[in-house]
UniProtKB/TrEMBL annotation:
The modification 4-aspartylphosphate is found at D55. The lineage of its organism: Bacteria, Pseudomonadati, Thermodesulfobacteriota, Desulfovibrionia, Desulfovibrionales. It holds the Pfam family Response_reg. GO terms for biological process: phosphorelay signal transduction system. Transmembrane segments: none annotated. InterPro entries: Bact_response_regulator, CheY-like_superfamily, Sig_transdc_resp-reg_receiver. The keyword Phosphoprotein applies. It comes from Solidesulfovibrio carbinolicus. Keywords: Phosphoprotein. Residues 6-122 form the Response regulatory domain. This is Response regulator.
């Protein structure tokens, strides 16, 4: 019996949050949303989630800074974290790896790409 996945999607673009919600919306996956890293930390303080999918470039707090905050919090340190960005610069990938990112996705990507990534970091993740 698969438990329902709870995934926090963090992106300053409402459209992109909607796209990710649609990609993730199969098999009863519950999607929570945050519009930037600071908002995501507020959500994480009160909502248990199985994974965070975060954009890199956002106002107030970038995704990389959110990742660092999550990794420094003992209660969240092992939470699977997927970084999403339109920039596949080697420096960004290296910076995310150094901050212990679980996976890295470069835009544009398909629902299949997203679920392949999630299956690699979440045991028992359903497929799209």
């Amino acid at each position: 019996m698969n438990k329902t996945l709870r995934i926090l999607v963090v992106d300053d673009s409402k459209v992109m949050r909607g796209v990710l919600r649609k990609m993730l919306g199969c098999d009863g996956t519950e999607v929570l949303e945050a519009h930037d890293g600071k908002h995501a930390l507020e959500v994480l303080a009160v909502e248990p989630v199985d994974c965070v999918i975060s954009d890199w470039n956002m106002p107030r707090m970038k995704g990389i800074d959110l990742l660092r905050q999550v990794r420094q919090d003992a209660a969240l340190a092992h939470l699977p974290f997927v970084m999403v960005t339109a920039e596949a610069m080697a420096q960004n990938v290296a910076e995310a790896d150094a901050a212990s990112v679980s996976a890295y996705l470069t835009k544009p990507f398909t629902a299949e790409d997203l679920w392949t990534t999630l299956r690699g970091i979440l045991p028992g993740a359903a497929s799209a």
